[in-house]
Amino acid sequence: MPDIYDLEQIRAFWTGQAKMHGQAAAASWSDVRVMEMEVREISKYLSDHDRVLDVGCANGFSTVQFARQRQIRIRGLDYIPEMIAEAHRRLDALSTHLRGTVEFAQGDITSLEEPDGAYDRVVTIRVLINLRNWDLQLQALRECARVLKPGGTLLVSEATVQGWRRLNAFRREWGLTDIPVPPFNEYLDEDKLSKHLPNELRLAKIVNFASSYYVATRVLKPLLAKALGNGIDPADPNMEWNRWCAELPPWGDYGTQKLFVFERC
Ligand SMILES: C[S@@+](CC[C@H](N)C(=O)[O-])C[C@H]1O[C@@H](n2cnc3c(N)ncnc32)[C@H](O)[C@@H]1O
């Protein structure tokens, strides 16, 4: 496989993830603890009766969690038909009440078919990083802004180059090698996100919700595993260590993954 995937290879990657993992969280990411943290953090910005759009929802794992947290109406979109088929299967297993509040459809974040100003909140979780360059990421941000009501909120949980660099600098101090950027990802540039935004968006807040978790699981955990030589897999998110680290207050700026809260002007 090449070092950097083009858009077709990225599409093929996500189709493969849907086929391999079905409804499991792993279709979206191996680190389910960060996925739970994302839902917990984003839910703080959702209110009962909101109309919410979750773009790049994969198999709907997080979309349904949002619907369980608040009395909202939520629509999940993904451009991979196999992901949406899994999301529909997930819906079939839900209670009649939840089924009435969640829907899924195919859609591409760079050209949404949703009407203007239809949503109170739009969510993207690890989706913009699948677009190959800033121009496409900006186009996607514009589309998300377009479908938001004025005064609505865009909640963007994505990996950034700056967060990734700071984490790797921390690792290097302790003799750990750099964590590479996956070949299907283009991490966001925080400077561009804050200074080159579409006119209709204003950056209200950056939340480093996963900073402590990243230090504990990407620096401390591999060091402990190496020192003890006990065969522990530092990448296993299902250890009690990870569950406990996910409860830590977020100190510092070492999380690759951050939440950007934008207001629609
Ligand atoms: C890392 S998964 C994130 C899934 C989900 N948001 C979550 O919280 O777990 C990225 C998803 O974005 C989707 N995606 C990538 N590019 C997209 C695009 N241009 N339009 C819509 N979805 C896209 C992929 O198919 C994949 O399901």
Describe the structure.
The protein is of the alpha/beta class. The protein has one domain (7-160, 183-209, 254-264): Vaccinia Virus protein VP39 (Rossmann fold). It has 10 helices and 7 strands. Strands 3-2-1-4-5-7-6 form a 7-stranded mixed β-sheet, with helices on both faces. The mean pLDDT is 97. S-adenosylmethionine (SAM) binds at residues 14, 28-29, 35, 56-58, 61-62, 78-80, 83, 108-110, 125-127, 130. S-adenosylmethionine is lined by residues 14, 28-29, 35, 56-58, 61-62, 78-80, 83, 108-110, 125-127, 130.
If you compute it from the alpha carbons, what radius of gyration comes out, rounded to the nearest whole angstrom?
18 Å
Question: What ligand molecules are bound, each kind once?
Answer: S-adenosylmethionine
Strand fraction equals 15-25%
What would CATH call the architecture? Answer: 3-Layer(aba) Sandwich
Provide keyphrases for this structure.
alpha/beta; 265 residues; Rossmann fold; single chain; 7-stranded mixed beta sheet
Q: What topology does this entry show?
A:
Layout: H1 7-21, H2 32-43, E1 51-55, H3 61-69, E2 73-78, H4 81-92, H5 96-99, E3 102-106, E4 119-125, H6 134-146, E5 148-159, H7 161-173, H8 190-195, E6 201-207, H9 211-228, H10 240-245, E7 257-264
Parallel strand pairs: 1-2, 1-4, 2-3, 4-5
Antiparallel strand pairs: 5-7, 6-7
Helix pairs in contact: 1-4, 2-3
The structure holds S-adenosylmethionine.
Quick rundown:
The chain is an alpha/beta fold and 265 residues long.
